[in-house]
């Protein structure tokens, strides 16, 4: 029995001796795997951050549009689209309405000096812009006297000024509507946030974040649209003022030419 006990104890010690290195090896592998995972975590976070940074402006804008809610972002977007369409139309019209007034007056003076009023009218017909149209109306009434010419120039000048200011009211409307829709989305988002708080029975950032995001994004986009349209609106006003000054100065010089050479 003693011999059997000794043999059994020896076998048990041998098995324990063999299992110990295996357990140590397993623990070492697990530790190495954990270390590798810890080292890989910052790399993965950096990769995610890099992926976010590489997003194009269009992708970021699209994501914010969706997050803000299509129901409130769409009216703001429509204000931008229609407002910019009117802005582009006005800018093109005003640029085409710009005239070299001095050159035109010199040509009119050369024709009127020789009594060639038809040539002066033809020159005005071939010149684009409101100034040339005003001069044409004046030349067309030369035979009725200078007083009628002056009345025609003044009256048609008012008509041309109204044409220059066409569609400005609509641009101003879109400037006012864009932030209004944004603020309306803000109010609705705040109400949504309070409804979520009431349902959850808890004031936590997770509960409030959804409604607040809608509120802030709609306000931001509405203000951005209004700012963009307002900048172009002021540019258009400046362009109109410049053209009106040309019309007034040119009309005075035009009347001086007629007074000087009209018989």
Structure keywords:
263 residues; rod-shaped; 89% helix; 9 helices; mainly alpha
Describe this structure in words.
The structure is a single chain. This protein is mainly alpha-helical. The chain has 2 domains: 1-54; 57-263, no CATH class. 89% of the residues lie in helices and 0% in strands. It has 9 helices and no strands. It starts with a helix and ends with a helix. The relative contact order is 0.12.
Largest sheet: none
Distance linking N and C termini: 154 Å
Low-confidence stretches: 1-23, 46-52
Mean pLDDT: 77
Q: Which percent range fits the helix content?
A: over 70%
Radius of gyration: 40 Å
The backbone outline, from C-alpha atoms, is rod-shaped
Can you describe this structure in just a few lines?
This protein is 89% helix and 0% strand. The protein has 263 residues and is mainly alpha-helical. The chain is rod-shaped.
Task: Set out the fold topology.
Layout: H1 2-53, H2 57-68, H3 70-97, H4 101-113, H5 117-125, H6 130-139, H7 146-164, H8 168-200, H9 205-261
Helix pairs in contact: 2-9, 3-8, 3-9, 4-5, 4-9, 5-6, 6-7, 6-9, 7-9, 8-9
